[in-house]
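Action item from last week, closing it out:
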Amino acid sequence: MDDDRHARRKLLHDGGGALGFKGGGKDFIRVRESVLNCINLQTRRDGSACCVNLGLHPRGLPSASGHAVLESKMRQVDCELKRRLTLVGEADRWWHFG
């Protein structure tokens, strides 16, 4: 599982991240001019796969729960728009590591 954590961090975070996200563990955020992009990686109990949960949140808008947004603490679950990454036609998708 440490290898999986390292791979996630390298893609999303290290050195500014190839994709420009900051964060760690399972939650990552990228701040754009008018929107916050959030990613949450929900790992399966056995550690063999994860779901990729995506969120978009307009800057300046309160969180989905109605609270003021502290951008550095924003998580996918707090976003106004949320979606799980799937293939076309799927309702749910577990992405396997390795």
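Closing note: Residues 2-12 form the longest helix (11 residues).
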